[in-house]
């Protein structure tokens, strides 16, 4: 599965799963929220495993930038808190970093070359 598809879907699943736990623990929602939340978190893990890379850590590291962007979007759309310029600048930096990690040419790196 292409990372461009897996990462946004994984972010949605992770945020949904984490929010279900947040809603139960912090907002007093029914414990029944935990069942779909745990399923969403399992889906999140499965989606990350679909990214085509030889190292899981690289897939997870690159995903981090996408997760940050999705979290800022969630803050705006679901929580009504508009991102400020620092949120947007930080998000842009993270996405550039994620792109570098994911698509950089790989080879042997010796003595800084």
From TrEMBL:
SUPFAM superfamilies hit by this protein: Multidrug resistance efflux transporter EmrE
Pfam family, one: UPF0060
InterPro entries recorded: EmrE-like, UPF0060
One cellular-component annotation, GO: plasma membrane
Membrane-protein topology: Multi-pass membrane protein
Positions of transmembrane segments: 30-48, 60-77, 89-109
Major location category of this protein: membrane
Subcellular location: Cell membrane
Keywords of the record: Cell membrane, Membrane, Transmembrane, Transmembrane helix
HAMAP family attached to this UniProt entry: UPF0060
Family note: Belongs to the UPF0060 family.
NCBIfam families linked: PRK02237.1 (NF002586)
Protein name, as recorded: Small multidrug resistance family-3 protein
Species per Swiss-Prot/TrEMBL record: Palleronia aestuarii
Organismal lineage: Bacteria, Pseudomonadati, Pseudomonadota, Alphaproteobacteria, Rhodobacterales
């Amino acid at each position: 599965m292409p990372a461009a598809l897996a990462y946004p879907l994984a972010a949605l699943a992770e945020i949904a799963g984490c929010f279900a736990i947040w809603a139960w623990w912090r907002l007093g929602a029914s414990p029944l929220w935990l069942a779909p939340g745990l399923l969403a978190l399992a889906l999140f893990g499965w989606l990350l495993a679909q990214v085509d890379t030889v190292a899981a850590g690289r897939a997870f590291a690159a995903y981090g930038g996408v997760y940050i962007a999705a979290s800022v979007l969630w803050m705006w759309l679901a929580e009504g808190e508009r991102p400020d310029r620092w949120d947007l600048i930080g998000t842009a930096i993270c996405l550039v970093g994620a792109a570098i990690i994911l698509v950089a040419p790989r080879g042997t790196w010796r003595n800084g070359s």
